[in-house]
Write a structure and sequence with these properties.
By secondary structure, this protein is of the alpha+beta class. The chain has helices at about 5-15, 60-75, 75-85, 95-100, 105-135, 145-155, 200-215, 235-240, and strands spanning about 25, 30-35, 50-55, 155-160, 165-170, 175-180, 185-195, 220-225. The chain folds into 3 domains: about 5-55, no CATH class; about 60-135, no CATH class; about 145-240, 3-Layer(aba) Sandwich (Aminopeptidase). The chain is built from 8 helices and 8 strands, in the order H-E-E-E-H-H-H-H-H-E-E-E-E-H-E-H. A hairpin with a 2-residue loop joins strand 4 and strand 5 (about 165-170). The longest helix has 30 residues, at about 105-135. It is globular and about 55 Å long.
Length: about 250
């Protein structure tokens, strides 16, 4: 079953590719990734019917090779040596690699961008293999850059302190982001893009604009991320967010 590979689905696939704790398939009809080991599925969905598609293969070994590639690219000799030492450990390689990068915030941000770009290439190769089966032309290997589209075709407006909107060229509201201050912390309580304007990078643009202003005021920034939006954590990591706490809920079944 054919499906379009947009930014939201790409981010979702990226998130689940690295999850080694369960098995996942793409439900091409619904356009999202499903956990086939959850209680919802009494039987493993059939991948032969075209609806459920196996995700791109990604193992811990692939992740290790990506870290090796990134370490070898670094021109900073001290950082390169520290990363190489972490990769040569017998145990705790991934944790050691991450701990070192946490000491170099700018390089840590570069790592997240590099990792995302490399994994997106794998997704596009996978998607093009499907398109070949469908008799369609392949798409470009490089992810589409939407930044110029956002700047040229949309207008960012600051409505009040730490509240921004984005409007189309004809004045139609496309999305909003709002936050409130508590002491020295700015908490994002809403980030919403209208469905017809999603997958254009508008949410990331609004987030970046809000963070830029928060930095000028010396404010920390927090945001609650719903469980079904875990894949958006990649965008947060690129903006130097760190996990702070987890919120659990026990719902009343009555």
């Amino acid at each position: 079953m054919r499906f379009e590979l947009d930014d939201i689905l790409t981010d979702e696939i990226l998130f689940y590719m690295e999850n080694q704790d369960s098995d996942f398939l793409l439900d091409s009809q619904e356009g999202h990734v499903v956990d086939i080991l959850c209680n919802e599925y009494e039987e493993i969905p059939d991948t032969e019917n075209g609806r459920y598609i196996t995700l791109p293969e990604w193992s811990s070994q692939d992740g290790y090779h990506l870290m090796e590639k990134f370490a070898a690219m670094q021109k900073n000799p001290v950082l390169r040596q520290e990363l190489s030492a972490a990769l040569n450990r017998n145990r705790g390689v991934f944790r050691a690699f991450k701990s070192i990068l946490e000491q170099y915030p700018e390089y840590e941000k570069k790592w997240f961008k590099f990792k995302e770009q490399e994994m997106k290439k794998e997704i596009i190769v996978w998607y093009n293999s499907l398109r070949e089966e469908w008799g369609l032309e392949p798409i470009g290997i490089e992810p589409e850059d939407t930044s110029s589209l956002v700047l040229e075709d949309f207008i960012i407006k600051e409505k009040e302190d730490f509240n921004f909107t984005v409007e189309s060229s004809n004045g139609e509201l496309a999305g909003t982001i709002s936050a409130n201050i508590n002491a020295s912390v700015l908490h994002i309580n809403n980030l919403d893009i209208k469905s017809e304007y999603r997958c254009m990078g508008l949410g990331k643009t609004l987030l970046s604009r809000l963070i830029e202003k928060a930095e000028k005021h010396g404010l920390d920034v927090t945001i609650d991320l719903p469980a079904e939006m875990d894949f958006f954590s990649r965008s947060l990591y690129l903006e130097n967010f760190k996990p702070y706490m987890q919120r659990f809920i026990r719902q009343n079944k009555k």
